[in-house]
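> agent: user asked for a holo structure of the chain below bound to zinc ion. Plan: (1) validate sequence alphabet, (2) canonicalize SMILES, (3) run complex prediction with ligand conditioning, (4) return tokens. Step 1... ok. Step 2... ok. Step 3 dispatched.
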Amino acid sequence: MKQKKSVWDHADTALKLWILAMLLCIVSKFFEGTPVQWLLILSGVVIAVAAVVYRFQKVRCPHCASHMTAAKGKPKRCPDCGGKLL
Ligand SMILES: [Zn+2]
């Protein structure tokens, strides 16, 4: 049986995408002055935007659709409606 991804699994995925985007931008420095540099930066920007959009759409309360942040840890219940975050 496939377990449903939790809000925080989605947050982790978005974070990994974000890190990948940053890595692409860092690696692009090694290709300075070549078209590869711009290709890497462009991919980095696209992935960064995708990470933000993904987080915005997926990391929200399944009960009240309020947006979640992990700034104060990863609460098990929604701070807005008290619903379980599974
Ligand atoms: Zn809620």
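> agent: step 4 complete. Summary for user: Residues 1-68+75-86 form one domain. The longest helix spans residues 35-58.
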